[in-house]
Amino acid sequence: MTIGVLIIAAFMIIPLVIGFFAATKSTKTSEDFFIQGRGMGAIAVFFTVAATWWSSFAFLGSNATFYTNGPVYLTALAWNLLFGFMYYWVGKRVWFLGKRFNYITASDLIGDFYNNEKLRIIVAGILLVFTIPYLQIQLTGGAYLIEVASGGVIPFWLSALMFYFIIVTYVWVGGIRAVAWTDIIYGALLFFGMMYAGYYISQHVGGPTGLFNGLLETSPEHLTLPGPLGAMGYPMWFSLFAVTAIGAFMGPQIWLRMYSVKSGKLFNLMPFLLGFAAIAYMGSLLAGFTGVLLEPGLANPDQILPVMLMEYAPFALASLILAAGAAAAMSTANSQIHAISTIVTMDIYKRYQNPKASQESIIKVGRWSLIVFSLIAYIMALVVPGVLVTIGIAALAGTAQLLIPTIGAISWRRAHPTAAIWGLVVSIAVVLLFTFIPVLKNPLGFHAGVWGLLINAILFVTISLALKRTDEEVVNRFDVARNDYNKAYHPELVEENHSDKKREAL
Amino acid sequence: MFQRYPTKKKVLYSLIILSFIVMETPLILLANTTEPFVLGMPFFLFWNLLWWFVLTALFLIGYLINWGSKESSETVIDES
């Protein structure tokens, strides 16, 4: 017990030390606080993107899904690859435009390209509303783990509170630099924790081979779609793939991690690294499947890994692995709190309340909004129950809708603001209706988020083709920027004199 | 626009798209079986890991060949 508490204490203190150290490197500008002055290097970028992207959804939700629903979570291999590919293809272009036109948030890019204030507010609203539930599940997941790792000495409400106290403190002092540096430790801990936990637990049933043979005899439906409950067939396979990858990718915390990058070349290796890291899900698969043999019928599947570790592993090892799980939750939560505070500060306070705000007052508002929004998520974690994966997917389905206008902004000169607005408004309505109204839930088995994306894309393309943009100056400014992007990274695509003509027209 | 793409870029992107099609369209259901066990794994798991490996390798190749584009020069960004 004492060892468990000591490990948790170390886990709480180390990020604080890193946070305060990171603070000594910072300059007192808002750009430094929010996006590290666009100077983040390769190692920090990889770990902060990976650790932010992998949340308690990945660490606990994956085990729980393998345990209850069979192999549908294997689609995570493909969604990690898709996420990595989007980070390269979309992220690099977003980064380039961000650097060119000084963007910090998603609304900055979308609002500027579509030249529309309403759209800017809609984007900020979607990001705020749909990020908070996702933040809530990080807190719930992390607090479960601390509660179990301490042997129940630290109750759920207190572990959740401790969590937030630590995060708010180091983000307050160190901004995104503190988040990225702590994510290096969290990311490593998370990766090895997931792998080792699965491998260790599966040894109790004869290792991976013994496990699969055992399942084949006792519960073969765990090894193929649609799983033992018959609920997770192909439609969910595809839905999880699309909604998780796109929704997480469009989260405000990942937007900041596109803008923060120092050099465009850093994006090129990310698909490989992020895709490769997905192998850690094999740890979840082994742990979840072993649970089917060793602990069938658990009331709360999200607790399958903690429960098995406490029962079958030495206490110190179990606590260490659970700390890794808490790392998964914390590394996402810290980035989300930081990202939400960025939206409130830059998209609402600076743009509409006080456009001439000084650097000090911007950072001050950023810091106070950290506290307010983490408090909201804390209260939600205490009062709104739910299974991690279910809440997570619903939240991701909302943010995923931003991909359509974003692709329009980075690649299509005809993309029209009216099309973007209607696409977003209708698709968000579809997501909400198909999520919360039982008779309309998941038509044909596909998740609300997939229907939202489909309707969004159809509306976006048809309305854009039907209308014509009159703000030639903005369209040309982006044309020139996109052509410069190609000049820098895809010289074979550049049309002769294209950019120069447009530049002259400006 | 596509005719401007170098051949290696076309091949790379085609293989990437093909891998996603194999993994995420209903074609995946053709592999939705436990038998035969390969390398001690049920077939469905093996099949997914195989294509994960292929696609991860393609992403590494993508990095090594600069995603099929000519060498980039980042100086253009600073000039403009």
Automatic annotation (TrEMBL), chain A:
<feature type="transmembrane region" description="Helical">
    <location>
        <begin position="419"/>
        <end position="440"/>
    </location>
</feature>
<dbReference type="InterPro" id="IPR050277">
    <property type="entry name" value="Sodium:Solute_Symporter"/>
</dbReference>
<dbReference type="InterPro" id="IPR001734">
    <property type="entry name" value="Na/solute_symporter"/>
</dbReference>
<dbReference type="Pfam" id="PF00474">
    <property type="entry name" value="SSF"/>
</dbReference>
<keyword id="KW-1133">Transmembrane helix</keyword>
<feature type="transmembrane region" description="Helical">
    <location>
        <begin position="121"/>
        <end position="146"/>
    </location>
</feature>
<protein>
    <submittedName>
        <fullName>Sodium:solute symporter family protein</fullName>
    </submittedName>
</protein>
<keyword id="KW-1003">Cell membrane</keyword>
<keyword id="KW-0915">Sodium</keyword>
<feature type="transmembrane region" description="Helical">
    <location>
        <begin position="236"/>
        <end position="256"/>
    </location>
</feature>
<feature type="transmembrane region" description="Helical">
    <location>
        <begin position="184"/>
        <end position="202"/>
    </location>
</feature>
<feature type="transmembrane region" description="Helical">
    <location>
        <begin position="446"/>
        <end position="467"/>
    </location>
</feature>
<keyword id="KW-0472">Membrane</keyword>
<feature type="transmembrane region" description="Helical">
    <location>
        <begin position="39"/>
        <end position="60"/>
    </location>
</feature>
<keyword id="KW-0739">Sodium transport</keyword>
<keyword id="KW-0406">Ion transport</keyword>
<feature type="transmembrane region" description="Helical">
    <location>
        <begin position="312"/>
        <end position="330"/>
    </location>
</feature>
<feature type="transmembrane region" description="Helical">
    <location>
        <begin position="268"/>
        <end position="292"/>
    </location>
</feature>
<feature type="transmembrane region" description="Helical">
    <location>
        <begin position="72"/>
        <end position="90"/>
    </location>
</feature>
<feature type="transmembrane region" description="Helical">
    <location>
        <begin position="390"/>
        <end position="412"/>
    </location>
</feature>
<keyword id="KW-0812">Transmembrane</keyword>
<comment type="similarity">
    <text>Belongs to the sodium:solute symporter (SSF) (TC 2.A.21) family.</text>
</comment>
TrEMBL record, chain B:
<protein>
    <submittedName>
        <fullName>DUF3311 domain-containing protein</fullName>
    </submittedName>
</protein>
<feature type="transmembrane region" description="Helical">
    <location>
        <begin position="43"/>
        <end position="65"/>
    </location>
</feature>
<keyword id="KW-1133">Transmembrane helix</keyword>
<dbReference type="Pfam" id="PF11755">
    <property type="entry name" value="DUF3311"/>
</dbReference>
<keyword id="KW-0812">Transmembrane</keyword>
<dbReference type="InterPro" id="IPR021741">
    <property type="entry name" value="DUF3311"/>
</dbReference>
<keyword id="KW-0472">Membrane</keyword>
<feature type="transmembrane region" description="Helical">
    <location>
        <begin position="12"/>
        <end position="31"/>
    </location>
</feature>
